[in-house]
Amino acid sequence: MNIAVLIKQVPVSNDVSVDPETHALVRATSEGMINPADLNAIEAAMVLKEQTEGKVVVFTMGPPDAEKALRDAMAMGCDESCLITDRCLAGGDTIATAKVLAESIGRYGTFDLILSGALSADGATGQVGAMVAEYMGIPHVAEIQGFAYDESAAGSILAVKKFQGMEFKIKAALPALMSVCFGCNEPRLATLRTKRAAKSKPLEVYTNAELGMAADEIGLEGSPTDVTDSFEPESTRKAQMLSGTPDELARKLKELIEIEKGKE
């Protein structure tokens, strides 16, 4: 089974700057890492690869330094990678991003399954995976905890999805796209040996010269979403450390609650 994994490089910390004109994150000013939920998607892909003897190709769209995230993914076991980078793609919203990813996947090759993280640590919209599936015209199952593949039932895969205390099993025809929930598995760690091996694994670079997408489909111009402002919300919450015996702590906590109620 050939599997594509969509990953995103996100800031390591909240210490990021915002472009005053576009209101987009200035990613070049902060260190990046693979989005946490995408690590779970990579692990799910690796398990399925081992079961079916396929290959895993990891895709990301971002600045040139996003190559690091791809190398890290290949150090986890992914076989190949594709970096989609071009200045004209910058500032794209989820719709413009999904169009570019769908076009890139189609150009790269044929895949039986596409996986992505359910949510990103920075935007957390949960939209890109579903949009990519729509542009590619394939089924999509969102926020899964796992899946089961039976080779005897070729042409389909069973997704496991939990919602409000219930577990659902959803059968999808292949090719399909599924977004994987954060924390649903334990991502494997790269070793010094696999990190070295990742340096020589294939990494394809696509710019819009290769994709040939129209200017009104990509980047800011191709984004129907208009961000009018971005700001860091002010927090009035504060922490207070309490000490004492259980009875003393209970009394102090009761007093604090009554004080807060009196402020309302």
UniProtKB/TrEMBL annotation:
Span of the signal peptide: none
Residues annotated as domain Electron transfer flavoprotein alpha/beta-subunit N-terminal: 22-215
CDD domains associated with the record: ETF_beta
GO molecular function, one term: electron transfer activity
Entry-linked Pfam families: ETF (PF01012)
Transmembrane intervals: none
Region described as Disordered: spans on this chain: 221-245
Protein name, UniProt field: Electron transfer flavoprotein small subunit
Native organism taxonomy: Bacteria, Bacillati, Bacillota, Clostridia, Lachnospirales
